[in-house]
Amino acid sequence: MTEEDLDRLLEKLKERRGLDFHDYRRSFIRRHVENRMFSLGLQGEDCRKYEDLIAKSPVELDILFDKLTINVTEFFRDPDVWEYLADHIFNPLLSKAREPVFIWSAGCAAGEEPYTIAIIIHEMLRLMNDKPAVRIVASDVDPISLARAKAGRYGESSLKNVSERRLKIFFSRHEGYVQVGPEIASMVQFVEHSYLSPPPGRKIDVITCRNSMIYLTKGAREKALHNFHKALAPGGTLVLGASEVLIGDSHQGMFETMHSQSSVFKKLAG
């Protein structure tokens, strides 16, 4: 598969779904395209055969898009991370807040992460006399993923780290799916936005972006870090995924490590 083949596919994806994949690592894209061709019995074939299939069935582009933007996640993924965030980030933040608290879940996919944050925040607010206003904004580039997130319906497999107590309080079980309860759903605002675009003007107290930047080029990752730094309030918190590290020289002077095991960083002045 040539670079020209990939470029043609990326242009078709951009026309179909509006996302420019040129910020994604070429090796990542190539691997997923080849895996998709293999699953269709086109291994070893010229990429034109795959393009012919797309011309006959454009929905194939939607399938490929899902493969490229897949963000495997679940509620309370990496429980130790959420325990640290609850004890050392969210609890102190809410206890000391004199103004509304703003949290941004960037690259939220189907919504498990922001709903996890909402559950933790809800539990804390119930125990507080003076409850600060809290706004949780969750963003993603894919409108289909956002529609799934807004619907708040999940399979049992994504809830394996949710205790029975939380399941009873914050979810309702139905035939074939589990539904996020209205109290939690009302706490999260979903918006279509790329964290590679200019960040929101309002300063954010906590940004979570776990395990989606690993698919980006080095330049795109550094751009994202600059955007997060700009969006955060002074002393604000950035939470990355376990596979993501602050790379290159561009982040120097922007963040300091708060908890390396949980990939939690604090914004430095500047």
Describe the structure.
- With 270 residues, the chain is α/β, with parallel strands linked by helices.
- The chain folds into 2 domains: 3-69, no CATH class; 79-267, Rossmann fold.
- Helix content is 43%, strand content 19%.
- It contains 10 helices and 10 strands.
- Strands 6-2-1-7-8-10-9 form a 7-stranded mixed β-sheet. Strands 3-5-4 form a 3-stranded antiparallel β-sheet.
- α5 packs across α6 (112-126).
- The longest helix is centred in the first third of the chain and has 18 residues, at 79-96.
- The radius of gyration is 20 Å and the shape is globular.
- The N and C termini lie far apart (44 Å).
Features:
10 strands; alpha/beta; three-stranded antiparallel beta sheet; seven-stranded mixed beta sheet; 10 helices; 270 residues; Rossmann fold; single chain
CATH architecture classification name of the largest domain: 3-Layer(aba) Sandwich
Major sheet: 7 strands, mixed
Number of E-type strands: 10
Q: Can you tell me the CATH class of the largest domain? A: Alpha Beta
Low-confidence stretches: none
Compute the number of helices: 10
Strand order of the largest sheet: 6-2-1-7-8-10-9
Radius of gyration: 20 Å
Percent strand: 15-25%
